[in-house]
């Protein structure tokens, strides 16, 4: 199959491309920069969608980059890097004479309101709790194909991901050095839910959607089954055990607020208990259903 991946040069995109290539699929990346195996966003806007069986969007400025201050300019970049790239692909799919079977948008479980007690499935309402949930709501709305424009039965699948744990990117590598120096510990109270997924499981789930030409479900929560009960403290303890290092130094909430700012601090200090209900109903099986199995693999 031919697969087009917006933002495919990043952390998730590189793993997904590797998996797709190993399964005999041909990947083209949409990027801000031209290169081998790539087209640019400008190409898609001007020339239209290249022939493909599936389109995926993974483009987005890293929200939790601690080196970027939370200025109005950076906030707009976080928003537009998701909304405008998604809009470009949605419009190109709508106008394409041969649209793909599936259109897969990877967003986040930040759609659901942060809570230590509520448990969410794909059916739960959300999208109006804070900056992140409103961003996910708007981002997913932009991906909708208007029935009058879309000449085909392209299926939109919104994949709401938890924190993606992998060796080569995302949150985990930057957490390892404080733990290795025995400076690790829970963030804030540590009681906040910690929804997560192993990168390999996320890419296998995306691959399943691509190969099945969509999914029987329009929304999938991409979180491990243990995410309904995992907290930041559980994660800290599991990481501490896996590394054989103590994790007793909590990161104070005030420090997180000072470093990340009002809109971003809740992403670390609060969380959502999320179940992958429809993901499991779709027949997907997780290779890494709990933190111990995931960390044992990632820290091998
Ligand atoms: N990683 C996670 O834990 C996680 C969890 C939930 C949801 N997600 C979502 O999944 C998507 C992919 O995540 P990722 O970790 O793979 O992201 P990533 O590696 O940080 O970035 C993916 C790609 O986005 C493009 N990009 C970055 N800044 C951009 C900008 N200002 N404008 C346009 N494109 C830009 C880059 O491609 P080019 O440089 O080639 O243009 C980059 O390779 C993101 O939308 C993210 O919000 C990630």
What structural category arises from helix and sheet content?
A: alpha/beta
Beta fraction: 15-25%
Number of helices: 11
Fraction in helix: 25-40%
Domain NAD-dependent epimerase/dehydratase: 3-123
Protein name: Epimerase family protein SDR39U1
Domain DUF1731: 251-298
InterPro entries: DUF1731, Epimerase_deHydtase, NAD(P)-bd_dom_sf, SDR39U1
Explain what this protein looks like in three dimensions.
This protein is an alpha/beta fold and 300 residues long. The protein has one domain (2-298): NAD(P)-binding Rossmann-like Domain (Rossmann fold). Helices cover 38% and strands 15% of the residues. It has 11 helices and 11 strands. The strands form 3 sheets. It has a 7-stranded parallel sheet, with helices on both faces. Strands 6-11 form a two-stranded parallel sheet. A two-stranded parallel sheet has the order 8-9. Helix 1 (11-22) packs across helix 6 (199-211), helix 3 runs parallel beside helix 4 (131-142) and helix 7 packs across helix 11. The chain is globular. The model has no long low-confidence stretch (mean pLDDT 96). Bound molecules: NADP nicotinamide-adenine-dinucleotide phosphate. NADP nicotinamide-adenine-dinucleotide phosphate binds at residues 7, 9-13, 31-33, 58-62, 77, 81-82, 85, 106, 108, 161, 163-164, 169-171. Pfam families: DUF1731 (PF08338), Epimerase (PF01370). InterPro entries: DUF1731, Epimerase_deHydtase, NAD(P)-bd_dom_sf, SDR39U1.
